[in-house]
Amino acid sequence: MFDFTGKTALVTGASRGIGRAIAVALAKGGASVALNYAGNEAAAAEALELVQRAGAPRAKLYRFDVADPAACNQAVEDVVADLGGLHVLVNNAGIAVDQLVMRVKDEDWNRQLQVNLTGAFNLTRAVTRPMMKARGGAIVNLTSVVGEMGNAGQAAYAATKAGLIGLTKSVARELASRNVRVNAVAPGYIETDMTAALPEAAKTKLQELIPLARLGTAEDVANAVAFLASDLASYVTGEVLRVNGGMYM
Amino acid sequence: MTTANVEQKVKNIIADQLGVGEDEIKITSSFIEDLGADSLDIVELVMAMEEEFEVEIPDEEAENIKTVQDAVNYITTHKK
Predict the structure, then answer these.
(1) Can you give the residue ranges of every domain in chain B?
(2) What are the residue boundaries of the Carrier domain, all occurrences included (chain B)?
(3) Going by C-beta distance under 8 Å and a sequence separation of 6 or more, which residues neighbour residue A46?
(4) pLDDT over 90 (residue A192)
(5) What is the ipTM, given to two decimal places?
(6) What would the CATH number be for the domain defined by B3-78?
(7) Dist. CA A10–CA A61, nearest whole Å
(8) B16 in contact with A at a CB cutoff of 8 Å?
(9) pLDDT value at position A1?
(10) Distance of CA A231 to CAs A138, B46, B57, B76, Å?
(11) DSSP 3-state assignment of A232?
């Protein structure tokens, strides 16, 4: 559906869940894909195979911590050299450590901020020069419905996701003159490992809040990301595209 | 490196970054007024010069580098 022929994409947190589905969706469009992952080797190998089978001309795994700025700079350099340029960046890597605010530990707050928000910043800064030089590029940040709504038990996670919206809009303004577009996708409740942990009763209750009356799939989100990353979205920048079944409008 | 060398290299960088012909770049040329640079171009120029000459150009100094001459002066006085 979307044409990424001749393009290279870097997807963070690509070994599982939404990130994996995004990597596959971009590969289906003909993109070469760099898959970042934090440490789950088995899942990463599986994701790589799916991406290759989906039709990526070239695909490669890159294990690094997005919270480490030096590692991000190095990774971007490596991807450009290995896969021929870098045209699409998808900041998807994220962690959630749910706790009521009075019980949030400093290290959990800091780690969520580092991975979810600083990680996206690190890579955005690193890709800016190659994309500006190429006079074009697309960055898609994965935020969340809770970044706009808030959620009890997710003060830190929601704060990082709200922060990503500010990052998205600011960088969209900075880089627009170079035809680098920056957008965000805000998923609602999606069936992934992250939400599988929820008790059944909680899931049923959630579904009542969703007009489309089901949890989303990783593919639902991946399709929205692929659109924003593609040339079909050439006049879209600074946008937050909600993919939530209507639970927040 | 002589001042003439620095000047030539600075001109190369400017030509590359801004996509202008080297013959259009005079020592007195202002990046913004004469060479059509915008704020992003200036940041890119500063970063390219930092890399080429292995000098650090702090933001508050970069603000004062407005012409080719300013850049050459800064580099020749700060280069190790």
Answers:
(1) 3-78
(2) 4-79
(3) A15
(4) no
(5) 0.78
(6) 1.10.1200.10
(7) 10
(8) no
(9) 77
(10) 9, 31, 37, 45
(11) helix
- Report which residue type is found at A58: R
Q: Do B44 and A177 touch (CB under 8 A)?
A: no
Separation CA A183–CA A164 (nearest Å): 10
The alpha carbon of B56 is separated from its chain's Cα centroid by a whole number of angstroms, namely 13
Contact B40 A129 (CB under 8 A): no
Please list every residue in chain A whose beta carbon sits closer than 8 Å to the beta carbon of residue B18: none
C-alpha separations of A58 from A35, A36, A84, A231 in Å: 11, 14, 10, 20
Query: In this structure, which amino acid lies at residue A55?
Result: G
**From edge to edge, which strands make up the β-sheet containing A180-187?**
A59-63, A32-37, A8-11, A88-91, A137-142, A180-187, A240-243
- H and E: helices and strands count for chain A: 10, 7
State the Cα–Cα distance between residues B69 and B26, nearest whole angstrom: 9
CA atoms within 13 A on the CB side of A18: 32
What is the model's pTM? Answer: 0.92
Tokens of B5: 């060398």
Beta-strand relationship, A59-63 and A32-37: parallel
For residue B25, which amino acid is it? I
